[in-house]
Amino acid sequence: MAITAEAITDSMIASMQAANKSETPYAHWNLTSCLPDDAIRAAMNLPFDAPQLGGISGKRELHNKTRTYFDAENMERHPVCKAFNEAFQSERLTKAISEHFATNIQGTYLRVEYAQDIDGFWLEPHTDLGVKMFTMLLYVSDDPSHENLGTDVYDADKQHVGRSPFASNAAMVFIPSDITYHGFEPRSIDGIRKSIIINYVTNEWRAREQLPYPNQPIGG
């Protein structure tokens, strides 16, 4: 059966409606069953190489040259990337996202990164505030040893206060602000921790080649 944008949209909206919201230390949502089974399997098995860290970590931008996106090229190569982008670009899903998470993404641009994290990876606390108007961290890998590899959550003083549940096809969502500190505490990673990072970014985003629709803003 073909993976379709419509099926992904249906699944995402159902997942959003069933999401658990927490207000501590900032508003964020934990979602489950985000994608249809065939879509999450296809995403899990995308033939992208995990980038090597070379002993350096702490910020994803330290490895910009080896990061992977659901960009125009990968949409042509992989049907799941195309269907995924079409869903998150669609009027029905973007309207649902705006309404459910009380955010305005009209005029923004979709950006989707396929992250593969290996042992030695960590991220310092950061907020995503700036050109990112929406962040969704969708976990993909299904290794049972990854259950403790969720996103770390910090308070406004950058003190660690919790960790999102990590399970395949689960996600954490938040609207970036000056207190939405999150990161990844150094810890062992067995195999590859895979996730899809979905952002809607403003027109100030400079790396247009990362965007699947660089000339098509949401609602435009």
What does this 3D model show about the protein?
By secondary structure, the chain is of the alpha+beta class. Helices cover about 20% and strands about 25% of the residues. The chain has 5 helices and 11 strands. The protein has helices at about 5-15, 35-45, 70-75, 80-90, 90-100; strands spanning about 20, 30, 70, 110-115, 125, 130-140, 150-155, 160-165, 170-175, 180-185, 195-200. The strands form 2 sheets. It has a 7-stranded antiparallel beta sheet, covered by helices on one side. Strands 5-10-7-8 form a 4-stranded antiparallel beta sheet, with no helix packed on it. A hairpin with a 5-residue loop joins strand 1 (about 20) and strand 2. Helix 1 packs parallel to helix 5 (about 90-100). The longest helix has 13 residues, at about 5-15.
Provide keyphrases for this structure.
7-stranded antiparallel β-sheet, single chain, 220 residues, 22% helix, 5 helices, globular
